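=== Given protein ===
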Amino acid sequence: MDDATNHRWNGLYKVGSVAAWVAVLIFRRWLGAEFFFFRGTGIIRAGPKALPSTVLEWFTLLHGHRLIGLTLLNAFDIVNYALVGLIFLGLCAALRLTHRSSITVATALGFLGIAVYIASNQAFSMLSLSDQYVGATTDAQRSMLLAAGQALLAIQNPNAVGQASLGFFLVTLAGLIISIVMLGNRVFSKATAYTGILANAFGLGYPFGVAFAPRTIALPFVALSLSASACFLVIWYVLIARRLWQLGRGGSGAGMDKALGTPS
């Protein structure tokens, strides 16, 4: 592989690296879970101690605490999923010569999941309905807005399986496939591969737990799965960010070809 070919990928490696750092430091997935942790410890004193269970409770929360309401509706996960798309592009470039078919499938699943999640996230639509509900002057208007809010929650309900859960499942499955592919090459370390496998395997506990376990069992199981996944996901992103940045600065080329067993 010649230097001109290698340099074409350097920018993509760096973009993927920066996206991974931003996903770790600012737009982490499941910021709502972090909110409830800090709320439970008393570090944060405003906002609910549990997810609202009715449309009216969501409207009340969004009216009184917009930022908290949007956080619990996973509005900021939209940015996270967009960043994940950039991370996948960097990983696809780095792993393009190893198990090409698996990487192609993983990338396709990942971007399909990102599209489904972003399209199904109803946080800002709920915020708009909340504002309209506050300004409604008749019971008929309020009833109509509550019904509209209930329809949105059916699409994106943190307590049930919906389109957003499908998007999460596809992205997590893509991450698991990519992590397994990492085991078959020396571009990424075994530690990076195994951390990714753990992060995404625990992540899959969320949709399966919500879908198949009884509610009394699902809630603690899902909480445990998400907590474990979040910890490993942060470590995985840091390891990915460091390695992609190295590749972007010239750590690819002949060294990568040798690691992959391809002629330089």
Summary: Confidence is low (pLDDT under 50) at residues 1-5, 252-264. Residues 178 and 226 are 20 Å apart (CA to CA). The first helix runs from residue 3 to 25. The radius of gyration is 21 Å.
